[in-house]
Amino acid sequence: MMEFKLLRQIKKEPYSQYKHTGDVTIQEIKRMYDIYQKYYANTRYEIFERDFLEKTGVFFIIEPKNKQIVGFSTVMERDFVVNGKARHAFFSGDTIIEQAYWGNRALTRAMYRYIVSFKLRYPLTPIYWILISKGFKTYLLLANNYYSYYPHYGEKNSHLQDYVDSYCRQYFAEYYDKASGLLNFGEDYQPLKADVAPITTDLREKNTKIAFFEDKNPTWAEGTELPCIGELRWSDLYRFISRFMTKNMSVGKLESQMPRKRPLHIASDSDSKVA
What we know:
Elements: H1 5-10, E1 15-20, H2 26-39, H3 45-53, E2 57-63, E3 68-77, E4 80-82, E5 85-87, E6 89-97, H4 106-121, E7 127-133, H5 136-143, E8 148-150, H6 161-171, E9 176-177, E10 182-183, H7 201-206, H8 208-216, E11 226-232, H9 234-246, H10 251-257
Parallel strand pairs: 6-7
Antiparallel strand pairs: 1-2, 2-3, 3-6, 4-5, 7-11, 8-11, 9-10
Helix pairs in contact: 5-8
């Protein structure tokens, strides 16, 4: 699954490539780890390799001049059960892009093509994107591109809270704290390095979604993760591709840049709404 490689090379833009885990070479895994250890603390190659080999595949972001991998995002296809029914989902693992390429759209293009192919396998039911966010950039990948997702900074889609609870209990029961809504993998987990994507006062004030992420995951710097989910129907995919092809600023991105006019409301257990 490769995008228009020649076109991207002519434009001298990074391009994406999807590979199944079994097709990834040792050299590529080592290159992925080289990127990974730049941005995460407390890392070990053996743990990284073992975790990667459990995944279904990986999106590579490739710099066209020297054909070097400059970013990647791993994915695992797995179902989970809600109210006795199996829900079809794909789970995002590590997503890391070299800082010089932050903001590039290659990963978004790659994920869209993958999502369409995944949806074609389950055309009559919604599909779900599961991800856990230790940093705000991963959360924004969801919040800036999905219409129906949870946790939502506008207190929407509370029905998806049960879906998050379900997959956390099924796959992360040992690490899930339902009261806080966070995953804590312990002292051996790999947090982002302190100088990678810090949340500054300016970001909090200008971006409601970043402020919301920090409110929901105040211990993100210690490595705790915010479990999230995105729901996709055909109508969502249509809206996404229409927005992407016209290259207009996304609804999510536009909203995220709007300054807050009132304090965020973060629901407590006693609230009737879920943020």
